[in-house]
Amino acid sequence: MERTVVVLNGPNLNLLGEREPEVYGRETLADVEALCAKAAAESGLRLDFRQSNHEGVLIDAVHEVRTSAVGIVVNAGALTHTSVALRDALATCTAPVVEVHISNVHAREEFRHHSYLSAVSDAVIVGCGTRGYAFAIARVAELAEAAR
Ligand code: DQA
């Protein structure tokens, strides 16, 4: 079976490029997918890239891949700060989980400082712009290789 890294994007990330560009930049989600495809290929991994505005859809996606993916990269958007259910789903993953935020959430509003996902993630990458996704995929590849 091909080794697959799954990248999950949460609410409003479909609007990347037009939504608050001063915070998130001008790149679109399609640009991020292309960047992830390149990073995955460089690590010899297949990419499964998804976005949903719905918490349950993201949870179902985690359940679908929780034992088959070599790793999960997750930018859950605002669900990061609210979703115990997504946290509980990610906690069932056998493979590494890397949390990503495009912006530096710690330099923003107080409500963005807490993440329900960080405690069940192997790594957290914030404030590196969309490059953070590439760093996360590279880290998933390293962890997956070490676990082989
Ligand atoms: C975000 C940060 C979140 O606080 C916000 O709700 C997002 C995007 C980021 O990538 O910086 O939607 O996850």
Describe the structure.
The chain is an alpha/beta fold and about 150 residues long. It has one domain (about 5-145): Dehydroquinase, class II (Rossmann fold), CATH 3.40.50. It contains 5 helices and 5 strands. It has a 5-stranded parallel sheet, with helices on both faces. Helix 4 (about 85-90) links the parallel strand 3 (about 70-75) and strand 4. The mean pLDDT is about 95. The structure holds 1,3,4-trihydroxy-5-OXO-cyclohexanecarboxylic acid (DQA). 1,3,4-trihydroxy-5-OXO-cyclohexanecarboxylic acid binds near residues 12 and 80.
> Can you identify the CATH superfamily?
Dehydroquinase, class II
Q: How are strands sequenced across the largest beta sheet?
A: 2-1-3-4-5
Helical amount: 25-40%
Provide the structure class.
Answer: alpha/beta
- Determine the N-to-C terminus distance: 14 Å
**Shape summary:** globular
Q: Can you write the helix and strand succession as a string?
A: EHHEHEHEEH
How many domains, in number, for the residues?
Answer: 1
Question: What tags apply to this protein structure?
Answer:
18% strand; 5 helices; Rossmann fold; 5-stranded parallel β-sheet; alpha/beta; globular; 148 residues; binds 1,3,4-trihydroxy-5-OXO-cyclohexanecarboxylic acid
Question: Which secondary structure elements does this structure contain, and how are they paired or packed?
Answer:
Layout: E1 4-9, H1 21-24, H2 29-42, E2 46-51, H3 55-65, E3 71-75, H4 84-90, E4 97-101, E5 123-126, H5 131-146
Parallel strand pairs: 1-2, 1-3, 3-4, 4-5
Helix pairs in contact: 2-5, 3-4
The structure holds 1,3,4-trihydroxy-5-OXO-cyclohexanecarboxylic acid (DQA).
